[in-house]
Amino acid sequence: MTQVAIGFIPEPLSIPLEKILPSRKVPDGLEISKRFAQICSSIEEVGLIEPLSIAHADQSSGFHVLLDGHIRYIALQKMNYVEAPCLIAIDDENYTYNSRTNRLSTVQEHYMIRRAIQRGVTPERLARALHVDVSHIFKKMNLLDGICPEAADLLVDRHFSPELARAIRKMKPTRQIECVELMVSANNLTIAYAEAMLVATPSEMLVTGKKPAKLTGVTPEQIGKMEREMSCLQDQYKMVEQTYGQDILNLVLAKGYLSKLLENKSVVRYLQKRHSELLAEFEIIVRTVSLD
């Protein structure tokens, strides 16, 4: 069985804040934002639930580069914390990790809330800390109930309303995966889109086996058209999925060849003089990191 290497030391370590260097500038006006106030209130009420993510200490200076958790880092500084629990990256792929980090996704918030409750923090206390109604905490806590693991994995880095999960969990697992794949590929994770797909789902693919009420303002003809378009889109998605591996291989081979070609200064000078448009395209291919 292939072992997957972990990217961080599993247990957080307490690191002095003065030994951590931010890797990016935070937005202006952060400290007067509602989000910042929520984080400060949460830390004050229940402590820091999600550790900071940092790189290994530089051998000469002893400083760590902050990979993720910049807002939490500033909040801890403002609240006069001296140190913070941190997860330390095992490898040096700081750029790769940092390019993918952003504010907590909806699924990550779900896991964070579940961890806090498992540690004894009540939903009511969390609601006070985050300045939200306790019903919002329960929705986030139960976000993945009835959602199959494969569909949850597709949503793990996305931001969406908990109401979207309410529509998805009414479908059977196979249909959940189909619909989430479509939403992600279309970059449309709205409640309206999820409910439209729920209405377009055949009865045998629903948990209750009963079609939901039609959407207000949508005619049977429009529903039928949407079902046909969705079926066509699913077929196209599967075709792309089948050729994706070969396309990636072709991209890697092309990048390797063109990278070596552009290392030749004579070739570059010739292209600049005779075929500048081709040179620009070659440079784009060399910089390409995915087929997105």
Task: Explain what this protein looks like in three dimensions.
By secondary structure, the chain is of the alpha/beta class. It is built from 13 helices and 5 strands. The chain has helices spanning 34-46, 70-78, 94-98, 106-118, 123-130, 134-141, 149-155, 162-168, 173-185, 191-199, 220-262, 265-274, 276-287; strands at 13-16, 20-22, 52-54, 64-68, 83-88. Helix 1 (34-46) crosses helix 2 (70-78) and helix 11 packs across helix 13 (276-287). The protein is flat. 18% of the residues are buried.
Keywords, separated by commas or semicolons:
about 290 residues, alpha/beta, 5-stranded mixed sheet, 13 helices, 5 strands, about 5% strand, disordered N terminus
Cα distance spanning the termini: 30 Å
Tell how many strands the DSSP assignment holds: 5
The coarse silhouette is flat
Order of the strands making up the biggest sheet: 1-5-3-4-2
The radius of gyration is 24 Å
Low-confidence stretches: 1-6, 93-102
Rounded average pLDDT:
81
Q: What's the number of helices?
A: 13
Residues in helices, as a percent range? 40-55%
Structural class: alpha/beta
SSE string, helices as H and strands as E: EEHEEHEHHHHHHHHHHH
Largest sheet: 5 strands, mixed
What is the topology?
Layout: E1 13-16, E2 20-22, H1 34-46, E3 52-54, E4 64-68, H2 70-78, E5 83-88, H3 94-98, H4 106-118, H5 123-130, H6 134-141, H7 149-155, H8 162-168, H9 173-185, H10 191-199, H11 220-262, H12 265-274, H13 276-287
Parallel strand pairs: 2-4, 3-5
Antiparallel strand pairs: 1-5, 3-4
Quick description:
The chain has 292 residues and is of the alpha/beta class. 54% of the residues lie in helices and 7% in strands. It has a 5-stranded mixed β-sheet with strand order 1-5-3-4-2.
